[in-house]
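Anyone able to model this chain together with zinc ion?
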Amino acid sequence: MTVAICFACGEFKVGAFTPCPHCGAEPVSLDEQAHSLALTDHYLTPEGLAQVQQRASNGLPVDIDPEFYEQLLQTLREEQQRKPW
Ligand SMILES: [Zn+2]
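re: yes, here you go
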């Protein structure tokens, strides 16, 4: 089970790419998906998640390391290009 934080409203949810139960936002674009992946317990400690949640719910921007963000985008692009066979 992946603990994630909604890229739109900052509430906790389960799974990076699931629709948010609070605001209904679902990551569709690569940017949104990379953002969502960065805000999961795969990459953040429980303390880190709590900090992000606090910031987001106070309307503050969430800092994601640009290099890390690029890596996530790259991973997602490769996933998309993978052929089903
Ligand atoms: Zn939300």
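The CA atoms of residues 14 and 22 lie 12 Å apart.
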